[in-house]
Amino acid sequence: MDESASLVLGRTKYWRSQISPAVWKIEGMAIPSFAFITFFPFLFRVQEHAFFVFLVLAVAIRWYQSESPWIRTPIDVPLLAFAGWVLLTVPFSINPWYSLGEWRKLMAGILFFYWVVLILHQNGGRFETRYLMRAVVGGAAELCTYALYDFVVHGGSWQDRAAFRARAIGSDSNWLGTYMVMVLPLIVVVTLVGARTRKEMFIYGSMFMCVMAALVTSYMRAAWLAFMVECLTLTVISGSRKLRSIILAVSMAAVLGFYVMVQAGYHVNTISSVSLELRVAVWEKGLEGMRSNPTVGAGYGNYIFRELYGEFLAAAPPIRGSKWLEHPHSYFLMIGMGSGVPALMLIVWVFWTAGKTLVEGIRRQSDVWTGRFITGVLVMMMGFITRNLFDYMFAGSLAYLFWLLLGAGVYHCMTASTEGSIARRPESAPASLQTCVLDRTV
């Protein structure tokens, strides 16, 4: 071998032994950074552009190392089939360019999922997941602090939601309620497993109460329902009768308290059925559109509904004095109307496969911290699905946060049989926590 070839070989070895690990460490730190940024929707464009830079860099390094950048997961088949079918229906859309743009957003989220899995696979998952949880808790703390302060400053009232609703930074109450639904299960995970002292328990408990307060003052009834579904999911997954009794007692007390306030004349606007009547009306139109074109739909995207029924919405009389809604107000109905029944069946398959994967991961996981993290992701997914039944919240920063958490959860399910402790071993936890181990699954 001549001198020049030896020099090239030496430089290549240096790259692989020194520079490449440093780049992967930076990529790993990007995961919690993105998790924190997702709580600030006005930074979404910055986040999206930064993500593609990290994605291109990760793919380039894997290829340079003669390794595939794609890490296979249990949800590959339904997920890629769903994305492929939506793309196939784009030419049949009443507005192809708009539908193509919405499909691009869908693919960006899916690529984000695979990027998270790749980075965790490359670095072993421990470092990133530990800081991921801290970033989620920190982002939620910032968001809750702003939302509650904004609620008080603008004259929000506990008596009714008509005065003012707590809202997310740079967004509205719909986004705030959805954020809270997504982070509450993970806050519970940190509280049960991450707290080692009474002081930490107090801090995490206060954080939980802050998130609950933000959820309540968002006055999003669909978010409240999603939280109830999360509580029900947690009682089913856990085998703890004590936990089931506590959740049942608290839920009954909350419902009873709300009933007493309504009887006293408070929250008249909150119990109004106008919003539900409007949703039922647009759901009927959406189902009509799905029946008229069940194969390829009218076009993927939330505002295809407005283009399809624009004249009808303008001419139809208002419902109890309220204007018609301009989109289906259901993520699943949007998919069925926009890309046909096959797309709707495929997205249901995606969530079913993801749920099955997470449940199996909980069953195989021997580490307490990791098992509960997976449990938190599963509970979060059930709440997020419920929230999207009543509105289209699978967009922007919310979608990125969902794909990030799902990617981390699925990765730990894939490595459950060999994964070690991320934070600490069960024997180092307080005895009161060891008795609450989630050792039963659906």
Spans of at least 5 consecutive residues whose pLDDT stays below 50 are: 418-442
Shape: globular
Structural class estimated from helices and strands: mainly alpha
Q: Please, what is the average pLDDT?
A: 84
* Total number of distinct structural domains: 1
Question: What's the alpha carbon Rg, rounded to whole Å?
Answer: 23 Å
Taken as a percent bin, the fraction of beta residues is under 5%
By DSSP, the count of extended strands is: 0
Biggest β-sheet strands, sense, barrel? none
- Taking the alpha carbons of the first and last residues, their distance comes to 62 Å
- The helix tally amounts to 16
Question: Residue share in helices?
Answer: over 70%
**Secondary-structure element pattern, one letter each:** HHHHHHHHHHHHHHHH
Task: Annotate the secondary structure layout.
Layout: H1 3-37, H2 44-64, H3 76-89, H4 96-123, H5 126-153, H6 173-194, H7 198-217, H8 221-237, H9 241-263, H10 274-292, H11 304-308, H12 310-315, H13 331-364, H14 368-389, H15 396-414, H16 431-434
Structure description:
The protein has about 450 residues and is an all-alpha fold. It has helices spanning about 5-35, 45-65, 75-90, 95-125, 125-155, 175-195, 200-215, 220-235, 240-265, 275-290, 305-310, 310-315, 330-365, 370-390, 395-415, 430-435. The radius of gyration is 23 Å and the shape is globular. Helix content is about 70%, strand content about 0%.
Brief synopsis:
By secondary structure, the chain is mainly alpha-helical. It has helices at residues 3-37, 44-64, 76-89, 96-123, 126-153, 173-194, 198-217, 221-237, 241-263, 274-292, 304-308, 310-315, 331-364, 368-389, 396-414, 431-434. It has one domain.
